[in-house]
Amino acid sequence: MSATSPPVPPELPIPTPPDQLTAPDGRVEPAPGAIASHGRYVNADLRPVPLAERRWTTYNFTALWVGMAHNIPSWTLASGLVALGMDWRQAVLTIALANLVVLVPMLLTGHAGPKYGIPFPVLARASFGLRGANLPALVRAAVACCWFGIQTWIGGQGIYVLLGKILGGDWARATAVAGYPWTLWLCFLVFWAAELALIHRGMETLRCFENWAAPFVLVGAVALLVWVAVKAGGFGPLLDQPSALGWGADFWPVFFPSLMGMIGFWATLSLNIPDFTRFGAGQRAQVWGQSLGLPTTMTAFALLSVLVTSGSQAVYGAPIWDPVALAGKADNVFGLLFALVTVLIATISVNLAANVVSPAYDLAHLAPRFISFRTGALITGVVGVLVLPWKLTATPELYIFTWLGVVGGLLGTVAGILIADYWIVRRTVLDLAALYRPGGRYWYTAGWNWRAVAAFAVGGLLAVGGSYSHPGKGPFPADGLIPFLKPLADYGWAVGLAAALALYSLLMATARGPATARS
Region (Disordered): which ranges (predicted)? Predict the structure, then answer.
């Protein structure tokens, strides 16, 4: 096996590979025997989904987004903005704009899913190389493991709080273990085990769960809105809470980092959305499903969240940005039980789809012969409880500016490279079998494309190098990690995506050989 691919003059067109079949609608699958059933770079979970098994419809993708958007952390995005001083109009505007922006890379990277049936780490091989794709896969997996831990902790905490209201004081006064009551740890572990049991049943179970979970969670959110509106004496007090920032000089320094944080919330899925769209019945299904599901759902849920949070301020004198804490103020057992079931379904729905599927594929990509999708999911679950996730959501500043801001900057960099490679360099044309074949078109130098690594390093440095925190509000120095990059920190996702896209495109355009050829 050679260390580099054989030279191909960039001006020569690449014919359609003979070992792949193209359907009339443009979707592609490998010819029989073109891709090995197992090996160092392939297993059953990483192979392209056969055309006959790409069945997800527009409704399936819309339901997927409704299920993922309706969860406690996305609720606290909007309510957190209110807690930071915005009024409901400013918070909803920020979230609506962010989700319209992040929808664009979501659709661009999602295109490869229905067309080729491949997951995110395999798509990344085209730009990073067969071995180099482990770099973005590990970045994405690490972020997802943290998110899994955050969601599981919040879900377990919600169960603990609501059961405490139902069962009485002895539940909350249980003996402390590692600083928390053992009953809280029990809720956390039971919830964790239930999630892994569901994901172990596979993607078809996930699709069915999302289909019925989505409308149920929406009903629960509306019920919470009606309840707080009744407590507040109508919807008027919910809409009358003023902005502490106004629309002047105090607003914009909060708006732009908040916007990047909101984008960063779904920047994870803008990378690994092919993990889902690979099951799509066609491009129309994924485009319409995502367009109908993501920005509309997130905006509507944000409106519910800020109205309820504003209502809590009117009723209790201070904004309660945690919906579990607010639901815990219900004064009847039925309301508490309904809130408990809603918290369970909402958290499981998003955690399975957004935070287990991707790292399971990403970890399987590291060692396909030894790690299956289910093994990767189990590893994700274990890592998710080792990252101390409760610290990341301690305050709105840590959650939105530190966690989401930094994550968004790094993931925007990877998205820029994927989009540049798939749309600009290759014009959406891939050699499907070569994505699984060492020594082929995507082998580059010993399995790594240094151009993608360079674009990732530069884009990441520009995106997060200037990260800063206000005194006492976060882990970064007030002047920024790299002071002269501080002005870029508030725009991390956009800076990372634009810088990586431009640099990668330039490096590939000036390269010789297969790096520049359509493949």
Answer: 1-29
In a domain, residue 241? The reply is yes
Tokens found for residue 367: 């060692």
Here the tokens at position 17 are 């590979």
| CATH code of the domain containing 232 | 1.10.4160.10
Angle in degrees, CA 92, 259, 277, rounded to 5? 90
- From 323, 321, 324, select the one nearest 398 (Cα to Cα): 321
This prediction's pTM: 0.80
- Boundaries of domain holding 443: 42-510
Q: Over 70: is that where the pLDDT of 108 sits? A: yes
Has residue 388 been placed in a domain? yes
Distance of CA 336 to the CA centre of its chain: 30
| Tokens at 39, concatenated | 């090996």
Residue in the block written with tokens 């990690």: 481
- State pLDDT tens for residues 34-68: 887 777 888 888 899 999 999 999 998 998 887 77
Separation between Cα atoms, residue 432 and residue 418, nearest integer Å: 16
Overall number of domains in the chain: 1
| Assigned token pair, 294 | 């993501």
Helix, strand, or coil (residue 180): strand
Q: What are phi and psi of 349, to 5 degrees?
A: -55, -50
- Residue 502: pLDDT band with limits 50, 70, 90: very high
The reply to whether 6 falls in a domain is: no
Overall residue count recorded for the chain in this entry: 519
Where do we find the tokens 């109205």?
Answer: 307
User: Tokens representing 89?
Assistant: 């109009």
Three-state secondary structure of 6-23: CCCCCCCCCCCCCCEEEC
Q: Is 117 helix (H, G, I), strand (E, B) or coil?
A: coil
